[in-house]
Amino acid sequence: MKSVLDLLDGYITNNPTLSRGTIAIYERLAKKYDDIDLTKATYQDIMQIVKRETNPNTQAAVLNLAIILTKTRYELHNRLQKEREPLNNEIDSRRKKKLKEDNEDLPNYDDLVDVLQGMTGTDYLINYMLINYAFRNSDFMLKNINLKKDIPEDKENYVYYNKKLRCISLLISNYKTSKSYGKKVISINDPKFLKIFKDLNLQDGDYLLTTNKGSKPSISYLADIVQRKSISGLGEGRIFKIIVKDLLSKHKYKKLEEVSASRGTSLAVILSSYNMMNNEGV
Fold this sequence. Notes:
Blueprint: H1 4-14, H2 20-30, H3 43-50, H4 56-69, H5 74-81, H6 84-105, H7 109-117, H8 121-133, E1 142-144, E2 157-162, E3 167-172, H9 178-181, E4 184-188, H10 191-199, H11 219-229, H12 235-249, H13 253-263, H14 267-274
Parallel strand pairs: 1-2
Antiparallel strand pairs: 2-3, 3-4
Helix pairs in contact: 1-2, 3-4, 4-5, 4-6, 7-8
């Protein structure tokens, strides 16, 4: 008997370039198959497991793992591949519906900027980076370093006060699409940002955002902080949608390219998943 986890182990061994994040996702999906033997499982067996999930995105992910691991069972493999199109259509329909709802309900960019100006403390820092650099949640895992020369190469994301340039420098290399976009280097010279950052009096090795006990937060804890402190609790995804809509409506395509780079998200993904005007057919 070959369980899904057994087959997955072999697939991972034969594909050494898979990232740790991808492997973790595959392992989590494999557990949804329980003890099913994929070398003998029927089309109906697999689709029954896929359809146990109610979210089409999860269904697609569970299905995709089966497709990856059944390449030697050609007839089954091809039949499973045909299930991708209706699932993708359902995902696309739901995505456009959500974009339409957001387009009708979310505030505009100028509203965000107005609220930002009245903010203080880390609330201001977080929302300034969300609005101006389209930060992802994980980008906020920033470790303070007093001297640039003390920064290890590409270990974490770092923040420090650059005395020479009189600005706050951010070095971000630990994020989802870093292999495609490389290290992000950002310099912030906004006077209010500088003053708030200095007033925090962070020590060498401190994190910009921490748990209540002052320790390094987990990614999920960090996401909760950003969600809670973001303007009106919008979170990084919806704020990014507002930014994209503003740039497209004002035809600021060069700026959109810059935001694409600072966030580490391709223009294709931005235009399909974050463009609130992309809701035709809903």
